[in-house]
Amino acid sequence: MHTNIGFYKEEEMIIMLNNKMFSELSNNGKHIIREIYGHPKDDDVVHCRKVEDFIKPDFIIEMNGIEHFISMKSGSSEVVHQEYVKNFCTFLKENGISDETIETILLYQYGDGTLDGTGKERIEYNKLRFILSERIKNANTELNVNKDFVLNIINRSIFKGVNINNIEADYLYHGDTDYGILVSKVQMMKHCKRRDWDWMDNLHIGPLQLRPHARYIGKPIVKPLSRERLELYWAKYYADLDYISKRYDG
């Protein structure tokens, strides 16, 4: 039976924090609580529970009646979000993105010269990038010209998810019970508002590169729905989180 290591590590975090006085926490636990709550008293009690819904926050930390929602990542994957590409394109269209750019995303996703994945030949990645290079350049210009739109995509992909009624994560935690990096939404947004990613020639929105979950180049399509899923990928995500945690207030 497959075991999800991420869920296991989340449970470990909850056990480490739940129903503990601040003075009873490990050094890492104390660091997390100080970063979130400032300067707690030794006898302040921390409560922690799992978020049951499949949304961006994984668990809730509460102390003195104040709750914060935490999204936890423990693996090495730099994929921060997945959804069906056509749902994503609908969201883009609702936010004023042109049909030409949406078509570029679909051509890049399916890699077979069609907008729906019905082509007979799937093109190898480097050749596809060359064929679509001018279209990708134009799409990147449109997708990144409005910084508020970029921040909206980052919030949707990392903190909130696709449902507008979802509860947002207040913090990202990357690590385990022994060590981790904690970044608040405020810190993340300050960083992404300040930075530009104009140097990136891959199809991207801010730091998030768009790519298909599976290309199936030169082999049969095993899971058709995998070709429909779009990944948003943040290269060097862990290193950037470490930088953000040290350089920005919030």
Question: Brief description of this entry?
Answer:
By secondary structure, this protein is of the alpha+beta class. The protein is built from ten helices and ten strands.
How would you portray this structure in words?
The protein is built from ten helices and ten strands. The protein has 250 residues and is α+β, with helices and mostly antiparallel strands. It has a domain at 79-166 and 196-237. The strands form two sheets. A six-stranded mixed beta sheet has the order 1-2-3-4-6-7, with helices on both faces. Helix 7 packs antiparallel against helix 8. The N and C termini lie far apart (41 Å).
Task: Give the CA-CA distance, first to last residue.
Answer: 41 Å
The total of helices stands at 10
Task: Tell me the quaternary state.
Answer: single chain
**Sheet with most strands: strand arrangement:** 1-2-3-4-6-7
Sheet with the most strands, sense and barrel status:
6 strands, mixed
Bin the helical content: 40-55%
Structural class: alpha+beta
Principal-axis shape equals: elongated
The residue ranges in which pLDDT falls below 50 over 5 or more consecutive positions are none
User: Average pLDDT across residues?
Assistant: 94
Count of DSSP E strands? 10
Spell out the helices and strands N to C. Answer: HEHEEEEHHHHHEEHEEHEH
Alpha-carbon Rg, integer: 20 Å
Strand content: 15-25%
